[in-house]
Design goal:
The complex is a heterodimer of chains A (85) and B (745). Chain A has 85 residues and is of the alpha+beta class. Chain A has one domain: Herpes Virus-1. Chain A has one helix and three strands. A two-stranded antiparallel sheet of chain A has the order 2-3. In chain A, β2 (46-48) and β3 form a beta hairpin. Chain A is elongated and about 70 Å long. By secondary structure, chain B is mostly helical. Among the domains of chain B are: 10-125 and 134-155, Up-down Bundle (5 helical Cullin repeat like); 273-378, Up-down Bundle (5 helical Cullin repeat like); 393-469, Up-down Bundle (5 helical Cullin repeat like), CATH 1.20.1310; 562-660, 2-Layer Sandwich (Ribosomal Protein S5, domain 2), CATH 3.30.230; 663-743, Orthogonal Bundle (Arc Repressor Mutant, subunit A). In chain B, 65% of the residues lie in helices and 6% in strands. The chains are: A alpha+beta (85), B mainly alpha (745). Chain A binds chain B through residues 1-18, 31-32, 38-42, 46, 48, 54, 85, and chain B through 448, 450, 475, 479, 482, 486, 507-519, 521, 524, 534-535, 538-539, 542, 546, 550-559, 561-570, 576, 581, 584, 587-588, 590-591, 640. β1 of chain A pairs antiparallel with β2 of chain B, so a sheet runs across the interface.
Chain lengths: 85, 745
């Protein structure tokens, strides 16, 4: 072997892949954060429902807490279940 | 004896009393028994039956005092003008002391009979009916008042004339001729004689003596100043004047009541400084430019108490510092322009800061001038304001140089010191956002390429910036640090994951996973690239691992930022080289052959022309590859340099590529411009949302105030942003005035 790789340090960036650009609840872009947070990133994550709709976690939690009877997805009115695939 | 009121023979009793009080007022020896008898006599007169004789006693006593003072007046004048002051002082001392005793002798009527008539304190302060002459005073006060009327009134102006002469003699250094104590005592008697008054104690002193004294002194100062001016030498003049003021102050302490000290100094300054300002200013420029510390300090001391007189000196100092500053950073050339820029500025700053402390006592006016001068030097735009100001960029570079591994030969403490000093300069920069842009790009490079000297130093610097500019300013920088620590966690987890599955990658693999928005990496220059197969496994495994852990995230590899350490095994000595991924990929192609054409390499790796050129050239320049021609055309053959040798066995060939290219600088400037527009628009919308309707000028003012922290916006730019917002229908012009905007909800 003429050239051997001893170390390799990779650099990569990550982005959310959601099926929409904006959060359906707060209308803020998914690249940004929910209105209550200051910085986007790990502290303000996205979550998906089984209906495949996606929101800021903080936004959907607030929405679910405000619903007294049925926990529904605000977009499609199906019952809300977290998709933990 | 009994305290009961009884009938008293006034005339007989008064004869006794009169004899005693004559003794008291002339400080004769009074036996205790007689004193006690007179005390009760006075009491019995006051409570006499069938009616009190107090008023009569008061009238008689007053008459007695008037007669006594009249006699003294003659005695004082007996020895002529020469001894007038001395005699006056002698009799005054005796009389004033005697009056004190007399006051005690009359304690009963003072307290029981006269107090009742006196005004209460409240009436005194809020000034009800002014004292009408018929009112009775306590005996001690009466005595002083009689002295004023009977002695000072007729003699006052003659005394003052003599006193002024005495002080003039003192000025002329004939101190032996004057009775200092008598002069001082006489002067103070003008105060003491009214000392009992609640208001205007100094009135007599001021009218009778102080005013003539100040006028006379004023004339004297004027003559003195005129004499000194003839020498036409500013520094000599200042020294003499300062000495003169000190001397006069000393004299005032020697002779005058302390309330006059301030006035004497003021007079002196008026006549010797304020009236000759233009003469003093004439040397100002030369003194500042020559940095004649002593003269400047004298000048400051003279001018500081004259209202508004300092401004000329302050302005001159400001101009001087500015010129010095500009010449320190003008004409800088060479590689290390950023270092000399910052260090020269700091030298100028420190020098003048110290000078101001030393010479001007750290006066706020001069500190302000230093600030103004520094900020205009640092934000100076060369070429009549047409070229952009490079200070933010240079300062960021300076910090970069200090924080990079390469800075050798300086201790950590020194680096700390230098970094904290660079904050001084940072504070003066108007375009802080430009600095932030450059700084964050350089920080990103340092972190990704593992060039940081110490993480502690980095964090300390960011904290300093945060202190100077607030949380918003550094939040992006903080996010980079967070990503670094998240990534190191991730590496650990990945290694555990590999161990569990028993996978060998064949290389040492590390990774930085960065959050897309937080890093100033330029909008993802993702170039097509065929990954060398040696890396494929690692990349695939990591992607699998990552997607298992994090839902809904997409990874984008930034190959132009990846680094590899290679061992070159085909040379006489083994070398360890740090290269970028693209360089590594090129080198790996030579595994089976010794020469390849440029085109072949580019095709295999699917690199674009620009990327290929940069990296291939860097390999040729470092002599690892040999090219057959200067210019790399697609047909040029590159071959491995089998005779390569280097003194060091471990080196990098990444430097050339990491350099900030002019395009990058321009790119940074453009992105700053874009950010500013967004910032301004956001600020305008915020302001208008809360104010609803606002005049044009008021809006501009508020916008400027809000953005001051990070940059100084230009007015045309704000106007453009307002226009843009009107187009986007956030705002509209109010119908009745084009100078007013309203917020559209």
């Amino acid at each position: 072997m003429k050239v051997i790789i001893k170390n390799w340090t990779g650099v990569a960036t990550w982005k959310w892949i959601a099926n929409d650009d904006n959060c359906g609840i707060c209308r803020m872009p998914f690249d940004g954060c929910c209105p209550d947070c200051k910085l986007p990133g790990d502290d303000c994550p996205l979550v998906w429902g089984e209906c495949s709709h996606c929101f800021h976690m903080h936004c959907i939690m607030k929405w679910l807490q405000s619903q007294q009877v049925n926990q529904q997805c605000p977009m499609c009115r199906q019952e809300w279940k977290f998709n933990n695939k | 004896m009994s305290l009961k009121p009884r009938i008293v023979d006034f005339d007989a009793t008064w004869r006794d009393i009169q004899g005693t009080i004559r003794g008291v007022i002339t400080l004769d020896n009074i036996p205790r028994k007689i004193w006690n008898d007179r005390f009760s006599d006075i009491y019995s007169l006051c409570v006499a039956h069938p009616e009190s004789l107090a008023d009569r006693l008061y009238a008689e006593t007053k008459q007695f005092l008037i007669d006594h003072v009249a006699r003294l007046l003659n005695k004082v004048q007996d020895d002529g003008e020469v001894h007038l002051v001395r005699n006056y002082y002698f009799y005054w001392s005796q009389y004033s002391k005697g009056a004190g005793f007399l006051h005690s002798l009359y304690l009963y009527p003072n307290q029981q009979h006269i107090k009742v008539q006196k005004m209460s304190d409240a009436e005194m302060i809020y000034g009800s009916s002014d004292s009408n002459g018929g009112e009775q005073m306590e005996i001690g006060e009466l005595a002083l008042e009689v002295w004023r009327a009977g002695m000072i009134a007729p003699l006052g102006s003659r005394l003052v004339k003599l006193l002024l002469e005495a002080i003039d003699q003192d000025r002329a250094q004939h101190t032996t001729n004057i009775p200092i104590e008598a002069v001082k005592g006489t002067i103070l008697s003008f105060v003491d004689v009214q000392g009992y008054k609640k208001k205007g104690q100094l009135q007599l002193y001021q009218e009778l003596f102080e005013q003539p004294f100040l006028n006379a002194s004023g004339e004297h100062y004027k003559r003195d100043a005129a004499g000194l001016l003839e020498e036409r030498n500013v520094s000599l003049y200042m020294e003499k004047v300062i000495a003169k003021i000190d001397e006069e102050l000393l004299r005032a302490r020697k002779f005058l009541h302390q309330s006059s000290l301030q006035k004497v100094t003021q007079r002196c300054e008026t006549h010797m400084v304020a009236e000759h300002l233009s003469f003093l200013y004439s040397e100002c420029m030369n003194m500042v430019q020559g940095e004649r510390k002593k003269d400047l300090s004298n000048m400051y001391n003279l001018l500081k108490s004259v209202p508004n007189a300092l401004s000329v000196l302050v302005d001159t100092v400001l101009d001087h510092i500015k010129t010095q500053g500009l010449s320190a950073i003008g004409n800088l050339q060479g590689e290390n322009i950023h270092i000399s820029f910052v260090e020269n500025l700091l030298t100028v700053y420190k020098k003048y800061r110290q000078q101001i402390q030393e010479v001007f006592n750290g006066d706020q006016n001069f500190m302000g001038a230093l600030d103004k001068a520094c900020s205009s030097v640092i934000n100076h735009r060369p070429n009549m304001g047409k070229s952009p100001c490079r200070s933010p960029e240079l300062l960021a570079k300076y910090c970069d140089t200090l924080l990079k591994k390469s800075s050798k030969g300086i201790s950590e403490a020194e680096i700390e010191e230098k970094l904290s000093q660079s904050i001084t300069i940072f504070k003066y920069i108007d375009d802080k956002d430009v600095f932030q842009k450059f700084y964050s790009r350089m920080l990103a490079k340092r972190l990704i390429h593992q060039l940081t000297q110490s993480m502690d130093a980095e964090e300390a610097m960011i904290n300093r910036l945060k202190q100077a500019c607030g949380y918003e300013f550094t939040s992006k920088l903080h996010r980079m640090f967070t990503d670094m620590s998240v990534s190191s966690d991730l590496n650990n987890k990945f290694n555990i994951f590999l161990k569990k599955d028993n996978v060998e990658l064949g290389i040492n693999f590390g990774i930085y996973v960065l959050q897309a928005g937080a890093w100033p990496l330029g909008q993802a220059v993702v170039t097509p690239f065929a990954l060398p197969q040696q890396l494929e496994k690692s990349v695939q495994k990591f992607e699998a691992f990552y997607h298992e852990h994090f839902n809904g995230r997409k990874l984008t590899w930034l190959h132009h930022l990846c680094l590899a350490e290679l061992r070159l095994g085909y040379l006489k000595r083994p070398y360890v080289v740090t290269v970028q991924t693209f360089q590594m990929a090129i080198l790996l192609l030579f595994e089976t052959v010794d020469s390849l054409t440029c085109n072949e390499i580019r095709e295999t790796l699917q690199l674009n022309v620009d990327q290929f050129q940069r990296h291939a050239v860097s390999l040729v320049d470092s002599k690892i590859l040999l090219a057959e021609s200067e210019e790399l055309t697609p047909e040029t053959i590159l071959r491995l340099n089998m005779d390569y040798s280097n003194k060091r066995t471990r080196f990098r060939i990444t430097a050339a590529i990491q350099k900030e290219s002019p395009q990058e600088v321009e790119h940074t400037m453009n992105s700053v411009e874009e950010d500013r527009k967004l910032y301004l628009q956001a600020a305008i919308v915020r302001i208008m949302k809360s104010r609803k309707v606002l005049k044009h000028n008021a809006l501009i003012q508020e916008v400027c105030a809000q953005s001051k922290v990070s940059f100084a916006p230009s007015i045309p730019m704000i106007k453009k942003c307002i226009e843009a917002l009107i187009d986007k229908q956030y705002l509209e012009r109010t119908p009745h005035s084009s100078e007013e905007y309203s917020y559209v909800a």
